[in-house]
Amino acid sequence: MKTSKGGWIARVILGAALGVLSSVVLASYLAESRGPTLAVSLLCAGLGGVLSAATLPFADDGRSLLLHSAVHFEATALLFGLLMAQLGARGAELLAWEAILFLLYAVVWLGRWIGWYVEVMQLRTMLGLAPGPSPLKWRETLPYLAFALLLCDVLPMLLFWADHAVSADVPVLSGLLLPYLLLPVAGFSSGMSLGKRQGVCPLYPAACFVCYLPMVFLLFNYTAMFHCFMVAVPALAGNVTGWLYRRAASKKKS
Amino acid sequence: MEVEIRLESGRKEPKVVILAGEDSGELRRLAESLSRLSLGPVPVSGGGEKLLLPQEEFLRFYTDGKGVSAQTRSGTYGVPLRLYELEERLDAARFVRISNGEIVNLDRVTAVDLSLSGTIRMTLDGTVHAYVSRRYMKKIRETLNLGRRNGYENK
């Protein structure tokens, strides 16, 4: 670790001090009170301290990086949740704030990962090796995007039309068959096929989710949001299964 | 510049003599870069035998709890040296430390991959895997920049 332990402690103390200062601003803008309560000040100090150590987990590699990053996120989410609760957030609002925090974390992680990817690309170039897969394997995922569009956009529209064409009381095709059978099975199978060919491609489940999202509001309503998960989660599970199969097969071969 | 190679039986490490009319900066740089080239063989032990193997045969040197081991295409040998001692003895343009416990032969790297958790994996000769610590990435890049700028890869 480049920065010494003393350096980190100084950073955490500075972060905590900045947290206390920001609690004054938070209290007046968000809670519309003259000054922060003791609990808000303490939580802001804790949050400031934790955020100032945000780069610490990235000094490690592999498992310890994941573990330290997860612990840091949990500590941040806990302090942030308690702070928002102190400032009056409840239920869905609190969850929304936590979701925003998670998205911020995901963006920071992605930024770091792209930095590492660029470093590896440079290394490959210097060693005279082939450029390797694209970032997050987006290029390798592209051929499967056509299938995702068919599965998540064309198929729901067809089934919705079929349900309405026969004027059935219960929309069996779009309301039952699609979310509980077709989306999970097709999502899992296509994800597995991609995993077997290209390894883990995290953008594929995300693409399935995003492709289905317009259908929720065009054909159904917000109560059908779970359809997005019914395709994205099996796609992720299939992709990981395919990657595990590929790994086991290559180990057996060597 | 004329280059002449004279073979001398029994010599274990090459010796280079530069003949020039007068001293110059270029000459000093040439001498410096030649002196950095460590081309001597590495002593190893395996199967009850002590051997001297040429550097280009090695894929990697690594610590394995008992001491330092060396891996070649044909097998694994024990090395009676510490990793830092090996670092001083090996050709700095070919061998580089990639983590606290591993030195690899850059000429034998066939793939470099990055996992989702940020782990960098080097594949040597298509079969042997070594894991790069990101703390050593700068040093690896410097080695590649230094050693390969002078057409090392064209040797």
Secondary-structure map with pairings?
The complex is a heterodimer of chains A (254) and B (155).
Chain A: H1 5-29, H2 38-52, H3 62-86, H4 91-126, H5 138-165, H6 172-198, H7 203-219, H8 226-253
Chain B: H1 25-36, E1 42-46, E2 49-53, E3 58-63, E4 68-72, E5 76-79, H2 83-89, E6 95-99, E7 102-105, E8 109-114, E9 120-124, E10 128-132, H3 137-149
Antiparallel strand pairs in B: 1-2, 3-4, 3-7, 4-5, 6-7, 8-9, 9-10
Structure, described:
The complex is a heterodimer of chains A (254) and B (155). Helices cover 79% and strands 0% of the residues of chain A. Chain A has 254 residues and is mainly α. The longest helix of chain A has 36 residues, at 91-126. Chain A is flat, with a radius of gyration of 24 Å. Chain B is of the alpha+beta class and 155 residues long. In chain B, 21% of the residues lie in helices and 32% in strands. Chain B has three helices and ten strands. Chain B has helices at 25-36, 83-89, 137-149; strands spanning 42-46, 49-53, 58-63, 68-72, 76-79, 95-99, 102-105, 109-114, 120-124, 128-132. In chain B, the strands form three sheets. Chain B has a five-stranded antiparallel sheet. Chain B has a three-stranded antiparallel sheet with strand order 8-9-10, with no helix packed on it. In chain B, a hairpin with a 4-residue loop joins strand 3 (58-63) and strand 4 (68-72). At the A-B interface, helix 3 and helix 4 of A face strand 8 and helix 3 of B.
